Amino acid sequence: GENVEQHPSTLSVQEGDSAVIKCTYSDSASNYFPWYKQELGKGPQLIIDIRSNVGEKKDQRIAVTLNKTAKHFSLHITETQPEDSAVYFCAASESGGSYIPTFGRGTSLIVHP
Amino acid sequence: NAGVTQTPKFQVLKTGQSMTLQCAQDMNHEYMSWYRQDPGMGLRLIHYSVGAGITDQGEVPNGYNVSRSTTEDFPLRLLSAAPSQTSVYFCASSQPGLGDTQYFGPGTRLTVL
Description:
Strand content of chain A: over 45%
Radius of gyration of chain A: 13 Å
Order of helices and strands of chain B: EEEEEEEEEEE
Radius of gyration of chain B: 13 Å
Distance between the termini of chain B: 36 Å
Largest sheet of chain A: 6 strands, mixed
Number of helices of chain A: 0
Structural class of chain B: mainly beta
Helix content of chain B: under 10%
Largest interface: A-B, 25 and 25 residues
Oligomer: heterodimer
């Protein structure tokens, strides 16, 4: 089955800095890579995703990159703000297959004002 | 749309007690899943369903039962609660072919004494 590794487990940055979270996956059949943000006391919510036919995707201050050859993908947050503080999860799944995603263990991002 | 709803939000059980965690979605999604979230362990899949009448085991199914009699509802049953089942439980739904996004409920925090 799929195995997703996520690093780092904790990331502390100053407001305005950039933050990068990295994930690797094992199953070459995976072709859908979403990122979820979980705020305290809430369920995870999708913030951005990327499919295997695309190398990079941006949405304002958030971007995701994918390297299919190396089987890794990353989340980049620029100009971080205190409200970006949350737990972030990466996931991998086979769209068109089982659809059930495998999640990484999460990264706790802390943005200091 | 209410999205994915879960009840109760909090629950305390004694070892050996049974209970059902409720999950409902009003988006007509085919897929529904149950996850547990423990510190440092990320989101681990307990059981999932790809449609009414169809369920399957995830990564950590022991001690839990599910059924899916309708598209909307996907209850999770703990037959004999154990302290190891102390966790936060999330229900999620998704619709294959419509983006694969998982929509999570707000979670149930369960403590087993």
